[in-house]
Every structure is written in C-alpha cells, then in structure tokens.
Amino acid sequence: MALENGKPSLASTAADASVMQSQSLDECLKVELSPAAWPEVQRVLQGLNQGAPVEELAHTPWPNNMPQDLNIQKYAFRAAPEQLRPRRSVRIGLVQNAIVAPTTAPFAEQSKALLRRMHEIADAAGVASVNILCLQEAWTMPFAFCTRERRWCEFAEPVEGGASTRMLQALALRHNMVIVSPILERDETHGETLWNTAVIIGNKGNIIGKHRKNHIPRVGDFNESTYYLEGNTGHPVFQTAFGRIAVNICYGRHHPLNWLAFGLNGAEIVFNPSATVGALSEPMWGVEARCAAIANGYYVGAINRVGTEVFPNAFTSGDGRPAHKDFGHFYGSSYVSAPDASRTPYMPRDEDGLLIADLDLNLCRQIRDQWGFRMTARLELYAELLARASRPDFEPQIIRDPAL
Amino acid sequence: MALENGKPSLASTAADASVMQSQSLDECLKVELSPAAWPEVQRVLQGLNQGAPVEELAHTPWPNNMPQDLNIQKYAFRAAPEQLRPRRSVRIGLVQNAIVAPTTAPFAEQSKALLRRMHEIADAAGVASVNILCLQEAWTMPFAFCTRERRWCEFAEPVEGGASTRMLQALALRHNMVIVSPILERDETHGETLWNTAVIIGNKGNIIGKHRKNHIPRVGDFNESTYYLEGNTGHPVFQTAFGRIAVNICYGRHHPLNWLAFGLNGAEIVFNPSATVGALSEPMWGVEARCAAIANGYYVGAINRVGTEVFPNAFTSGDGRPAHKDFGHFYGSSYVSAPDASRTPYMPRDEDGLLIADLDLNLCRQIRDQWGFRMTARLELYAELLARASRPDFEPQIIRDPAL
C-alpha cells in the first residue's frame, strides 16, 4: 500500500495496483491464456460487436508537444448498415488520471497542476479528433471527502465563470469538441451550497447545462453526504452537436432506476465519471455500467480515477481499522460498453489514460429493435408499484405459505 | 453444431459446447492461468465473500441408487456474525438439464422421460438436504416455442392437479423441501389460455401459489408471444418455511424493473429459471442476474438448460438464414450470485447438473446497511417519472444546445 507522505506517485502504488503484473484484467488474460482459449474467453467476457471482438484501432504516434506519459487506447464499435439512415459515428474520449501535486501542497498549487495536466490531455484529445470528451468525477481536486474536513470546500467552483470551466470552454471551442466536466460546484445563488455536478460544455465553447449527482453515498470513506446532498436537476439528456448524452455520476451507477431514467429521456451515450477503490467495488465495476448499456440500449463510458491519494491528517473509516491517511487505490479500469453487450478492454489500473472510442449510434436503435426491451417494459405497472412503495403505509405483495 | 436427427444427445453437442475444452469459463481460467494470476482474476471476476472466494464444499459421494451422471457442485456464502440475530442459513439447489427423449418421440414418452429424470434429480437434492429447489424454465417439455407449431401446447398443465405438480408435491413432502417448478400452464378457468408459470410448492407438499412470467420475448427463435402473453400475477414474494423467495422467469432478467419489484416486495432469494442459447445471450449471462443481486440486496439463482434441441420440422429465425431444425446450444452455466457481488463459478456448459449453495440470508440486510442503496433510492422521483413516461404525451427532459 502506498503511504509515502502526501505523495500520490503512481510508481509507489504499482505494488498494490497490479498483483497480476499486468495493466488490467483483460491484459492479464490475453497474455496468460493459450491461443485456443483466449478467443472464447474474450467472447464471453467482452462480448461481440457485429460478430467480432470490439475492433482495436492503431494509435498514430503523437507530435512531440503532446503528453507522452498518457496511455492511449482506441476502439471502434460498429452497427449494421441501414437502408434509410446514414451511419452516425461519434468519437468519444474518456480521461482517467491521478492527481498531480501532493495533497499537502498549497491548494493553489494543487489546482494549477491539475488544470495544466487537463489542458494537455484535452488538447491531445482534440488532436485525436475526439468529438465528446468526458473527465473523471471531481477532477479539479483530490477526492478528499473521506476526511470530513471542511477546508477542501475551497476547491468548489461556480458553473459559470469557474477557472476550470473557463479553461475547458476555450479548449472546446478550439477543438470543436463537447466536454463533460465533473466538478465540485459552488451554488452561489442558493446560499453558496455545494453540489457534485457535471458541466456540459458545447463544441462552440458555450455552457449547455449541468447535471447534479442524483444519488449520494454513505459508504466507508465515501463521506460525500457530509459535503453535498442529492441533486435537484432530474435526469437531463443533452442534445449536443454529436448526439444525445447524459451523465450518471459515480454512486448513481449502483441505481438501475437512475440509468433507466436517462434512457427514458433519450440518451444515446451515458458517461459515468467515478472515483472508486479496489477493495470496495472492483468486482462490481465490470457489471453495473455494462448491465445498464444492455438494459437501456445506449453506450456507457465508465471512468475511474487512478492512484492512491494520501491526505495530510489521518481519518477513520467506520470499520474498526486504526486511523490512516490514504483512501486505498483508485483502480482506473475505464471502459466503454455497448447496447449489444460488447465492451472494450479495461484501461490500466495505474496509469493516466485516454480511452478513445468510435461509436456508431445507429446500434442503439438496432439493438432496441432486436431485443424489444422498451416495448416489453410495462412501465405503467412499475409506475404504480413505485408510487405505492414510496408511501409509508406500503404493503408488499407477500404470499405466505398457509401451512406455516 | 449438433444436428443429429431429433436426438438431443449431450455428447453430440460437445463440439460447439466447449471451444475451450473446459466445462465452463471459470474452469478454463482456473486451469490455464498461472498460480499468481488466478487469485487476482478470481477476485475481480467472481468477487469475494467475507474476504475470500465463495467457499467450495466437498460433495459426499452419492449412494448407488442416486443419479451418477449429474454434475454436483456445492458452495457456501457466509455473512458476518451478528449480536442480535442468529445465523439464517438456507440450502438452495438449482437444476440444469437436457431433455431426455428426442423431440420426435411421442409426447407421452417425452413427458414421462422428463418426469422420471426430474424425480431422480429432486430425490438427489432431498438426500443432499436441499431446502429450496428450483428447476429450469418449462422443464416439462422441449423449448419448442421456436417452431410456432400449436401442437406443443399439449404439454401445458394446470397448476392444480397437473402430473408434474403432483409428482413434485410428493417429493416436497418426502424431503421437507420447497420446490419451484416452472411449467407451461393451462389456465382452465380462463378459457384454457396458456401462461409461462412458476408453481411454488411448500415443504409440506402444499401449493403456496404461482407466478406468471412478466416479460415475454420476441427475439430470434424466442417466439413465446405466439403462445402466451405477459403475466398478470404482479411480483409476488413467497414466504416459505426457509425464507422469502421470488421467481424472475427468463427474459424478465433483462428488465431491471422486474428485479427491483421483487426486491421492493421483500425477496431474499430470487430464482431466474431460463432457457437461452449461446450465440444470443452468453456475454450478458454473467452480468444481469449478478447486477440484480448487487442492486437489490438479495441472492439470485440463475439457471439455464443444457444441450441442443433438434425439432422434427424446420423453422426460420427471422434472420435470413435458411430454415433449420435446431435452436442452438443451451449453454447451462447456472450460478448463484450474492448481494456482496460474489458469485459461484458457472456450472458446466453441457452437462446436467445440480448446483447446491448454502446462503446465510443475514448477508442481505448487512449489505443493504453497508451500501445504503435502498435508503438512497429516491423511489418517489422515479414513480413520478415512470408515470409520465407511460403517457402518450410524455415529454422527455432534453436540454438542447442553444448553439445548434
């Protein structure tokens, strides 16, 4: 476990980030399995897109002024040709990254270092012709909610005029790129309260809107309800120049209803910017976002940060362990999942990375037509049940064995 | 592909049932991976239960009069000890099996062969002290709905007094065992219509009730809506002598709302008796039932039949392929998934099997307390949305980029 004082070095976390000595689960399987077994394992674990594994595209080497310490992976999801609609391909980019300066550095230095880093990553995504870029949850700061210390609130910014938003607006305009920017929001018009918010920046550099995280965890070190409450922006879908997108922030991925709502409102791509650690959630990571893509007939881009963040003061986790300073390892493993149950391999567990994927959006309707999940959904049945289940006097439908 | 005329022999399907030359995905990984890599891959793919892989129990060899051609696997899921509640352990059994007589045999012969087979399997489960046994979907017949031929309706039975139910009632009483028996139901009091129904038989041999499949597929060869419509029994949870159970039949596993409803009504174990083939759904198989267990805080027992069923007359699949006689390979792979994201390995892809699992039901509430999904579910928000989305004049929440 990386406990170097305050230093979020990636190298120092490699020991616990990779028991497998591979960058990811998929990489490990590909290396270790026999040539006969790998394709069959890949078929079951990663699914097939148009009858084959999701196609990996070659990555053209960067110009020298682009970041060389970024793991770049590139894939393409295909759809069947249609006779009455043209292909609708959009290139998305998912960013996973570690914090740059240690958490002990002055806040201005931490903030500046992260902005500089994201500037070069977003520039790189622009050069790679990404149409829609999504950054990780609360990317402008360390994920300090474990500490319950109020001073980290300083990292909050208003949606309009905040330093991170202004920087990304310029980059969006320069690269003709939609950017989804999840930040800690300072709501100045409502008593300066905080929200966990994704800002949606259009490809003309304008702010299209925002979405506030709907479901807030109270799990282990995820003491986020200390800082902000459940979002009040519903389940907006943003009609951008490159398709209809939505954002399911972090813990919302555990809520099938949250995923469903974005689908009902017409999303074709849902981003899931997250911050989650290995001991807690890794076996769930490949299951939930993927299930949502299948059930709702849209693409999901799942993002998790990387690295171990070590804080200045020790904190407890409500699990009887002694007070400690680190949050555990954010295991990266970002991936894209499609409505046909295919997915990309996972990004590395311990490297900054940019996952680029070309999505043919026609696949969404094709799979809905094929599987018929929406047609057979019986929403009115569930509207009625949820209304009843919300009431204090709810009586569950239980049939008791009369022989008991 | 096994196309031997009418013969559902397991041996004949092995060629396509196992490219991996292992019985299951998990078996293949365990055999092929290095001793260093396997535990880490297992941790991510199968999860951990109380900090370790789901415990495998030794299977005591059967007496000679028990079926020797049944793959038996046995596991135990643990929960943390509590101070105010005793441990609540229940032993469940999942049955996956091929049909016995060829589909060309006289119906009485096919039926008798299946009843005889299930009699010996249920007896074996009783000897193994199973408390709740669940059989596969429409276990009393071949999965003939691909044919659209009406003559297969002969296999339908009323809930009360049907041959399969009477046989299982006697076995339930003999072994003090709850049995979930999914059949094609003939509803004699409503114009002799058909339903896809699970009969719940109590451990005293009484019929506790029934559940009719809520969501009916129109996918490829799954022409089930030709035979029966969406169920009208809601989402009942059955309070049995051994815990609160529910049944999500086959295609209902693709509907997160269906899973949710059984959870809201208080299920601790949800069985998912299925019939599904490899080319269609295998990459989804490990995702959906598992996601449901995690999201709803209950155990799921997912069951799929095995073997390739070849029918007397050729039929088309609505995909441009020539008419053919087989449905593809039912790939077995039954498994149990727990609320803590752990699961058993998959059962074989091509062998009859009985998967036995000891479940500590206390785990359900422990995980709900830990993760808080129910507390943070905001049901009233979704009740309102689903009511709106059900109406013809629904207006999705779409925020359009004003720069477009």
Automatic annotation (TrEMBL), chains A, B:
<dbReference type="InterPro" id="IPR036526">
    <property type="entry name" value="C-N_Hydrolase_sf"/>
</dbReference>
<dbReference type="InterPro" id="IPR003010">
    <property type="entry name" value="C-N_Hydrolase"/>
</dbReference>
<dbReference type="InterPro" id="IPR050345">
    <property type="entry name" value="Aliph_Amidase/BUP"/>
</dbReference>
<dbReference type="Pfam" id="PF00795">
    <property type="entry name" value="CN_hydrolase"/>
</dbReference>
<protein>
    <recommendedName>
        <fullName>Beta-ureidopropionase</fullName>
        <ecNumber>3.5.1.6</ecNumber>
    </recommendedName>
</protein>
<feature type="domain" description="CN hydrolase">
    <location>
        <begin position="90"/>
        <end position="361"/>
    </location>
</feature>
<dbReference type="GO" id="GO:0003837">
    <property type="term" value="F:beta-ureidopropionase activity"/>
</dbReference>
<comment type="pathway">
    <text>Amino-acid biosynthesis; beta-alanine biosynthesis.</text>
</comment>
<keyword id="KW-0378">Hydrolase</keyword>
<comment type="similarity">
    <text>Belongs to the carbon-nitrogen hydrolase superfamily. BUP family.</text>
</comment>
<dbReference type="GO" id="GO:0033396">
    <property type="term" value="P:beta-alanine biosynthetic process via 3-ureidopropionate"/>
</dbReference>
